[in-house]
Amino acid sequence: MISLRALLAERVTQAFEQVGLAGAPPVIQLAAKPEFGDYQANGVMGAAKRLGENPRAVAQRVVEALDLSDIASDVSIAGPGFINVTFAPTFLAARLAKDISLSVSAPKRVVVDYSSPNLAKEMHVGHLRSTIIGDAVARVLEALGHTVIRQNHVGDWGTQFGMLLCYVEETGAGDNASPLADLEDFYRAAKKRFDEDADFAERARQRVVELQGGEAEARLQWQRFIDISLAHCQAVYDRLGVKLDREDVHAESAYNDELDNTLTLLQEAGVLTESDGAQCVFLDEFKGKDGTPLPVIVQKSDGGYLYATTDLAAVRYRQDTLKADRVLVFTDTRQALHFKQVFAVARAAGFADESISLEHMPFGAMLGADGKPFKTRSGGVIRLAALLDEAVERASALVLAKNPEITAAEQSSIAEAVGIGAIKYADLSKNRTSDYVFDWDQMLSFDGNTAPYLQYAYARIRSLFRRSEAKGLVASDQSQLDAPSERLLALALLRFPEVVEQVGADASPHHLCGYLFELAQRFTSFYEACPVLTADTPEQASSRLALCARTANTLASGLDLLGIDVIERM
RNA sequence: GCGCCUGUAGCUCAACUGGAUAGAGCAUCGGCCUUCUAAGCCGGCGGUUGAAGGUUCGAGUCCUUCCAGGCGUGCCA
């Protein structure tokens, strides 16, 4: 079903055409203030400006041509040419009675590249944002009807694997998984060996050459290591409720066989230049120091390839094999220049044609409460598994404090949902591109724009339904929107599709979070003002139960799109 | 040096891409529980949107110049 905003846009656009403003955007927004109505159309002012006409007069003509008699109770002109629209309660109620299904007019094939940890080490907090945000966006795009192809572009190739393989062989960790239980410790120990023992370092370098040359024993050991490392990742994904599995892994090494060919194709496209022994692509749009050309190096002077080469091969794979219309890559903002270059080279070389949209979706760093990069007290990286353990522990203590009579099993399942949900929501609710401050107390607070607040709102509604069922009350097909808080709640409920659409368009889950928070606030306001079980009449109770049911469904759907669990009791 | 990003209430963040009097939460102050979970609700306080110019009916948003911070910038990823 078309969203309220899209419906208004359609109507206003028709009116524009009738009064000679064809092509002008209607600019539909939520009303800035309740007294202005529900939505407003701001397009008249821009259009009048371009025509050199009086905006109020133009607005008058538009309103005369605008037919909203079936949906609006009031349409008025205000200020320099705002058109304010108030929906008729009967229209809102009728819409609310229908299922709101998410859909998109032109479904696409969308590659979502996210998480993509380096398998040499254990997952740490640096991987959290990509994993969580990418997963939420993938879920949203899927829900809108797009075909989503998840790509976990894990780092499984490179010089440090020689070091790790030697150490695996030395410790026998490949046969017995226990020394690899903590990959982070294992990496540090191997690094120590590498730094302190020249013989070991030499063997490690030799092992890389053997590995890259395809030597069977080296490949076997490497594969074992990768399997163990991926199992670590999978455990984190499963605990986080992230929809990634082995099927989605398309590792860097998967492009190994395409790298020579990628270089040849660049050569054939005529974009390749040798510089200081390295193979480079120079594009006019990238300038370095003093305006000198800035290269994208695709082959080192020693013949080795770089991650630019791999990423170029990945662009080809995603266009030619995966047939993607759109590619979203979730990495931190430090790689912005890299992807700008890779995408530009891909266009220049014809790896990506005009039909495919290549979008780097950057995100900022996670900072500690002190505003500095988020580290352990000793300055080390924080393992993701440890972070999740701490979240659940903290949530568990809170749950117990609020509800001492709870069973251990219930405490545990609530703590899991609340703790994990809190971490994910804290990240998702902030603007993706800026850095954000990681704060346990803030994210686990039951007040404010947090996962626990939303989960609590949901649990209250579920509790209400347990009681209403006991009393034999049933939700009606349609709600009466008499009280102001009922009307505000209804408007918020009907806004769900347009918010999800926006999140899909610009990969901004924080808009969905903001929406769900407002929905929950409007629900609790309604809930305080409008008794349900003790309503004046059975009809009123049923009407309000319908609003409650719709709210519960919307909260659950919205949180599910964010990858956050709801709970029946708190 | 050059490039990108950021700068909004004491703190954490919004502001639907140029719209009306810049909004929430936390903190703080004050109300509301014999009634559906007070893990809640209602209200108050709090702002020269880093600074100064400019563009126009209108600027947190766009352009210029500064200031502060972060990141990047030919052979790591």
Look at the helices and sheets and give the structural class: alpha/beta
Q: What amount of the residues lies in strands?
A: 5-15%
CATH architecture verdict of the domain at 252-363: 3-Layer(aba) Sandwich
Helix content: 40-55%
List the helices and strands and how they pair.
Blueprint: H1 4-18, E1 28-30, E2 39-41, H2 43-51, H3 55-65, E3 72-78, E4 82-87, H4 89-97, E5 109-113, H5 128-143, E6 147-151, H6 160-171, H7 183-196, H8 198-212, H9 216-240, H10 259-268, E7 272-275, E8 278-287, E9 293-299, H11 307-321, E10 326-332, H12 336-348, E11 357-363, E12 366-367, H13 384-402, H14 408-428, E13 436-437, H15 440-443, H16 451-470, H17 484-494, H18 496-506, H19 509-529, H20 538-562
Parallel strand pairs: 5-6, 5-10, 10-11, 12-13
Antiparallel strand pairs: 1-2, 2-4, 3-4, 7-8, 8-9
Helix pairs in contact: 1-3, 2-3, 4-17, 5-18, 6-7, 6-8, 6-9, 7-8, 8-9, 11-12, 13-14, 16-19, 16-20, 17-19, 17-20, 18-19, 19-20
The structure holds one RNA strand of 77 nucleotides.
What attributes does this structure have?
flat, 4-stranded parallel beta sheet, RNA-binding, Gyrase A, domain 2, about 575 residues, alpha/beta, 4-stranded antiparallel beta sheet, Rossmann fold
Quick recap of the structure?
By secondary structure, the chain is of the alpha/beta class. The chain contains 20 helices and 13 strands.
